[in-house]
Design brief:
It holds the Pfam family DctQ. This protein has helices at residues 2-10, 12-59, 66-81, 96-100, 103-134, 148-170, 174-192, 203-216, 221-231, 241-252, 259-273, 275-287, 293-304, 312-322, 324-329, 334-344, 355-364, 368-393, 405-414, 416-430, 436-453, 458-491, 494-505, 509-526, 529-546, 551-565, 573-582, 586-617. The protein is mainly α.
């Protein structure tokens, strides 16, 4: 023992690395455990929904309390999965300005960003604990205390704090951790003291400004929302901490939202089973010989495989990893290849099955089936616009040999399992045969059975469940975090202010549409599409429908506009995601994507003109 002590004393470098190594080991193993638990909860939720469907159609029966059990499971899955996305694209960090800061300012920004994350976790944990003390009664269908979901939500906050701290320790950034923790505790103490300061602006505006500051310092978007909602309690917010937690939890505890992890799981399993690869081969046989062959294949693959990602950010990251190397190998300039990936990724949130429309339906009570059908036609129009611009800008790129009709037919037959997924979702919901959540559950079960049929190993199946659960947890936390902001926007009558601006430009649908599109384009620059829908959907929809615009058509316009905003400078998030993965300079990407943005804007204009024409003749 004395020799080991002597070695330790004579090797301070090894001693200084002990804490980061221990933190990294703990982070890795705890992450694996939480990922497994989140995957297990997702599997249980899937079994619950499918069993309910079978009982209803096969035995004219049902599972008592199934909806409550499903939503409680959704909260539990979020508690296990939310911390796992802190250091991935799922954190939804906007790091463009952070990367441009001088090193000293960047260090300060790091502390502020980490402090917001720690404060968010602390607020979730403490506020949920207070709510459990207040919440009484028993859930009638489950026979369990009503405080359980609040306790699970608090668990999510505690795990977020733990993971944020372990990550900083593993990276050797002890100073940043200490400074961020002190700043977070100071903000928490200030909020608890009941101090009041009048900033001269509505609390919702103050909250938005704090969120903007959080984005500038590259804080995770959901945690910037939660921390800001707590801090504005000192600026006149009518939401005390327990009420804020209740609003956040109520925002995500909706049975419809269980469709999100099921759709994500279906997309991941399609890839694991190799069915997605068959789609790529089929797409290449159809358009690979055309001008811009591989670029057109990328586009058609996105059309056929849309909805595999729950987030436009995650979709862009997937495309950058998958298609960028092959495009470059075929002779495409790096920036042009990145622009193709960024622009075609917009289709994943427009063509069904679309999680963006699920979130919109949740926020506005619009019909999911009608939104999906509207998204189908809108997405195909966007795809046509991108097809034309790729044909014009990539006509000098290499192409593949034209496939024979027999080969196309063979590849189409091999792709039938993937096409079956779309039939289950779109027609099942549209014909009223299944609810949206049931359609998503059946789609996930369908792809799971395909994976078993094609011999996917058990470890890959577990990885698919873990990935889907983690991504769905990140989206659930975003939905929850945006709910207090949406509440304050309603209390402060921000929709009335927007309506006044619209009225100043005119009282008809043209003015309402122009103002709405302008606001959504700006929002799409900096916000994930899910957050933007949750915040602006309830605000803008009444204004638009009040002028005679069809609500479903306006919903499609909302989603399309937000996706275009994700491509436009200076802060288009889709471009920055592709840049972050491929290391292509953002300036070059923004220049290369401009023709695609122009084509998408023309398609958006056509959709708007159709909506205006429909309003005029109905």
């Amino acid at each position: 023992m004395s020799s080991s002590l002597a070695l330790s004393a004579s090797d301070p470098g090894r001693k200084s690395q002990a804490l980061p190594r221990a933190a990294a080991w703990t982070l890795e193993h705890l992450g694996r455990a939480l990922g497994f638990l989140a995957a297990l909860v997702l599997a249980a939720m899937l079994g619950l929904v499918v069993a309910g469907f079978v009982l209803r159609y096969g035995f004219s029966s049902s599972i008592m309390g199934a909806e409550d059990a499903g939503t409680w499971g959704y909260v539990l899955m979020t508690a296990f999965g939310a911390p796992l996305g802190l250091n991935t694209a799922l954190a939804m960090r906007l790091d463009v300005l952070h990367a441009l800061m001088p090193r000293r300012i960047q260090s300060i920004a790091d502390v502020v960003g980490e402090a917001l994350t720690l404060l968010s976790g602390l607020v979730l944990a403490h506020g949920s604990f207070i709510a459990t003390q207040i919440m009484g009664g028993t859930n009638a269908s489950l026979g369990l205390p009503n405080w359980i979901p609040f306790a699970l939500f608090g668990l999510a906050g505690g795990l977020v704090m733990l993971f944020a701290a372990l990550r900083l320790l593993a990276e050797g950034r002890v100073g940043v951790l200490v400074a961020a923790l002190v700043l977070a505790l100071a903000g928490f103490w200030t909020g608890l003291q009941g101090f009041r300061f009048d900033p001269g602006v509505p609390p919702s505006i103050a909250l938005g400004l704090i969120v903007m500051m959080g984005l500038i310092v590259a804080a995770p978007l959901p945690h910037a929302f939660i921390a800001a909602a707590f801090l504005v309690s000192a600026l006149g917010s009518p939401l005390p901490e327990p009420a804020m937690i209740n609003a956040a939890l109520s925002g995500m505890m909706k049975f419809l939202l269980l469709a999100i992890p099921f759709f994500l799981l279906a997309g991941v399993l399609l890839t694991k089973s190799g069915v997605a690869g068959r789609l790529v081969a089929f797409a290449d046989s159809v358009v690979g010989h055309m001008p811009g062959g591989l670029a057109q294949t990328t586009l058609l693959t996105n059309v056929l495989f849309s909805g595999a990602s729950g987030s436009s950010i995650a979709s862009a990251a997937f495309g950058a990893n998958t298609f960028q190397p092959e495009l470059e190998a075929r002779g495409y300039p790096r920036a042009k290849a990145g622009a193709i990936i960024a622009s075609t990724s917009v289709l994943d949130n427009v063509i069904p099955p679309s999680i963006a429309f699920l979130i919109l339906a949740t926020a506005t009570n619009l019909s999911v089936g009608q939104l999906l059908l509207g998204g189908l036609w809108g997405g195909l129009l966007l795809a046509l616009a991108l097809f034309v611009v790729i044909r014009l800008t990539c006509r000098d790129m290499p192409v593949t040999t034209r496939s024979s009709g027999r080969d196309r037919g063979r590849l189409a037959l091999r792709s039938i399992p993937a096409f079956g997924l779309g039939l289950i979702v779109v027609f099942g919901i549209r014909l009223g045969l299944v609810t949206t959540t049931e359609a998503a559950g059946i789609a996930a079960l369908y792809t799971f059975l395909l994976s078993l049929l094609f011999g996917v190993p058990g470890r890959d199946l577990l990885a698919a469940f873990r990935q889907a659960a983690t991504e769905a947890a990140a989206i659930a936390l975003l939905i929850a975090s945006a709910a207090p902001f949406a509440f304050l926007l309603a209390v402060d009558n921000i929709s009335g202010m927007i309506g006044s601006i619209s009225a100043a430009l005119g009282s008809g649908p043209v003015a309402a549409l122009a103002v709405s599109v302008g606001i959504l384009l700006l929002a799409g620059l900096v916000l994930d599409i899910g957050a933007a829908i949750l915040l602006f959907g309830p605000l803008l929809l009444p204004i638009a429908t009040g002028t005679g615009l069809d609500p479903i058509q306006f919903g499609v316009i909302m989603v399309v506009t937000l996706m275009i905003g994700g491509l436009t400078p200076p802060f288009g998030v889709l471009v920055f995601v592709v840049s972050g993965v491929t290391r292509i300079p953002t300036g070059a990407l923004f220049r290369a994507v401009l023709p695609h943005v122009a084509a998408l804007c023309i398609a958006l204009l056509a959709i708007c003109l159709f909506a205006l024409g429909w309003a005029a003749f109905t």
